[in-house]
Write a structure and sequence with these properties.
Strands 1-2-3-5-6-7-4 form a seven-stranded antiparallel beta sheet, with helices on one face. The protein starts with a helix and ends with a strand. The protein is globular, with a radius of gyration of 14 Å. It has a single domain, classed as Thiol Ester Dehydrase, Chain A, CATH 3.10.129.10. The protein is built from three helices and seven strands, in the order αβαββαββββ. It is an alpha+beta fold and 146 residues long.
Length: 146
């Protein structure tokens, strides 16, 4: 069974300079996710998100679960890009630090591999608006499956 996220990552051409809409999941579509940069050698990925109004709380800030989802996408996609054919990943743990309110707008999520083993991948992520301080950071452990 092919992982649609992995197929999407494999179709991305970093040299073309064009972002790729992440249409492999309904949540990614709702969050307005786009793949902007992928460096497999460094184990780094850059995703952009423009969450819709359905993710805003009463105080007009993005709900914490949506913030976590954006970070999880970035870290998981970094890990997914690093595994071989026939393998996929699953998030085993995720720890998020909410640093400031995430107001409506476009966000950049950077996911990076800190260490990759045969069965586990350790990642970190940052979420911020362009030119601003991070609103959240995270660490995750990914389980390599297959």
């Amino acid at each position: 069974m092919t992982n649609p996220d992995q197929a999407l990552l494999r179709s991305f051409d970093p040299a073309c300079g064009k972002p790729l809409a992440i249409d492999s999941s309904p949540l990614a579509l709702a969050l307005g996710a786009q793949l902007h940069r992928l460096d497999r050698e460094r184990g780094m990925i850059e995703l952009h998100f423009t969450p819709g109004e359905q993710f805003l709380q009463g105080a007009q800030v993005i709900q914490g679960g949506a913030v976590t989802a954006m970070l999880d996408f970035a870290m998981s996609f970094a890990g997914l890009a690093a595994v071989g054919p026939g393998q996929t990943i699953a998030t085993a743990t995720i720890n998020v630090a909410f640093l400031r309110a995430a107001k409506a707008g476009t966000y950049v999520a950077i996911g990076e591999i800190e260490r990759k083993g045969r069965n586990l991948i350790f990642t970190r992520g940052r979420l911020f608006q362009p030119g601003a301080e991070p609103v959240a950071s995270a660490k995750s452990t990914l389980l390599v499956v297959g």
